[in-house]
Specification:
Layout: E1 5-11, E2 14-19, H1 22-41, H2 45-75, E3 80-86, E4 89-94, H3 101-129, H4 135-155, H5 163-176, H6 179-207, H7 213-240, H8 245-248, E5 250-251, E6 256-257, H9 262-266, E7 277-281, E8 287-292, H10 293-297, H11 309-312, E9 314-315, E10 321-323, H12 328-337, E11 344-347, E12 353-357, H13 359-370
Parallel strand pairs: 2-3, 6-7, 10-11
Antiparallel strand pairs: 1-2, 3-4, 5-12, 7-8, 8-9, 11-12
């Protein structure tokens, strides 16, 4: 979902990363808490150290919130790609939707309940510690508890993509039995919520002159744009119906071995095709990345003899692989939510490349489905290089 992410390892078997914008979040909360503490206890290095610890603690609790979603998702059969901290908090990148409303509800509630538990737990620690560790430390703990309480309550607002929107979706889904209708209703609620946050942030920033309104504006923009994307996904799922990946994929695509040099690629039959992007495969035929002519053109002429395609290729992002029997709507969902996807690699049960789906394939499938025409396979076999 987010480029420019640094890996932080794994927690409970789940990959964890931090987007570079999380540094801004860390700095902002250090500044806000530091100014508050400095106003009461003086502008000292110790006070700012306490503020920095509080900001790091907040990021840690944000991570715990997202990990709770991911752990519960995995227990309910949903594969988790990773958890990423970024400017506006954290995000769990799930590879699929929950299979039923009950699982959806469990996954949605896991985060807010974790934040509530952390809020009460941290406040309990503050009561036990009292002023023994210093008044500034006590204030920091109370602030951290309050932030987790706000995080839990804010996330329970009923609008996608917030957790409250997921709860709303699960409840409507359970009541009506229609997942697409439930997703559309949650997304529409998210659009209204995002617009309201934008207005509140603008009023706070322009009329009141409080720079904190910038945060509400950013949140409103994020909620609104994400809700629009989810509404588009719901419409796409409805339109594509039961069409499978195998029905539209291009079979036997031109695949480039990762072990080839750039010179090998430029001397292969691939240069005679009209393709702009090629899947890159390992020795077992599993897709590991994508490479385009733009990527190749960036390699200096002298380096093309030794530069390996695998090193030049961009790794396949989350959601770029789809089983041939998977619903096309599921694969298309990733394409809508991940505009950086060049292609979707169709794989067999062993993970080997058997086809590709491009943006034009998805567009054609949508048009034919809308016209109630049979979706014939876009089988344009190409010679492997």
């Amino acid at each position: 979902m987010l480029r420019g992410t640094i890996s932080l390892g794994q927690v409970a078997g789940i990959k964890v990363g931090a987007h570079w914008t999380s540094i801004a979040t860390l700095g902002l909360f250090t500044l806000l808490l530091g100014r508050s503490l400095a106003g009461s206890y003086g502008n000292s290095a110790g006070v700012w150290l306490v503020a920095a610890v509080g900001a790091v603690g907040l990021l840690a609790t944000l991570l715990a919130h997202e990990l709770a979603h991911s752990i519960v998702a995995r227990r309910n059969g949903v594969r988790v790609e990773r958890v990423v901290l970024w400017l506006l908090g954290g995000v769990s990148e799930l590879d699929a939707e929950p299979k039923d409303a009950r699982s959806d509800l469990r996954i949605a509630l896991a985060g807010p309940l974790t934040s509530l538990a952390l809020a009460f737990g941290i406040f309990g620690v503050a009561v036990l510690v009292g002023t023994a560790a210093g008044q500034s430390v006590l204030d920091m703990l109370v602030w951290l508890a309050a932030m987790n309480l706000v995080l839990a309550l804010f996330n329970l607002l009923p609008g996608a993509p917030l957790d409250g929107g997921r709860v709303l979706r699960a409840l409507i889904w359970r009541r009506t039995g229609d997942q697409l209708y439930a997703a559309a209703m949650a997304a529409r609620s998210g659009r209204v919520l995002g617009f309201a946050l934008l207005i509140l942030g603008g009023v706070e920033l322009i009329l009141i002159g409080n720079t904190g309104g910038i945060w509400l504006v950013l949140l409103g923009w994020f909620v609104s744009s994400s809700a629009n994307a989810e509404l588009a996904v719901a419409g796409l799922r409805h339109q594509l119906g039961d069409i499978r990946v195998r029905d539209v994929m291009t079979q036997h695509p031109v695949a480039v071995p990762a072990a080839w040099s750039v010179a090998d690629l430029l001397g292969s039959p691939a240069i005679h095709t009209d393709h702009q992007v090629f899947p890159v495969v390992d020795t077992a035929g599993r897709p590991v990345g994508v490479v385009s002519w733009t990527d190749i053109a960036a390699i200096a002429l002298p380096a093309r003899e030794t530069a390996l395609v695998g090193a030049v290729a961009r790794p396949l992002p989350a959601g770029a692989r789809a089983n041939e029997d998977e619903l096309l709507s599921t694969a298309a969902t990733h394409a809508v939510l991940r505009p950086d996807l060049d292609i979707i690699a169709a794989v067999d049960s062993l993970g080997r490349l058997i086809g590709v789906i491009t943006a034009s394939d998805l567009t054609l499938a949508c048009h034919r489905s809308a016209l109630n025409l049979p979706v014939r396979s876009a089988r344009r076999p190409s010679t492997r290089p």
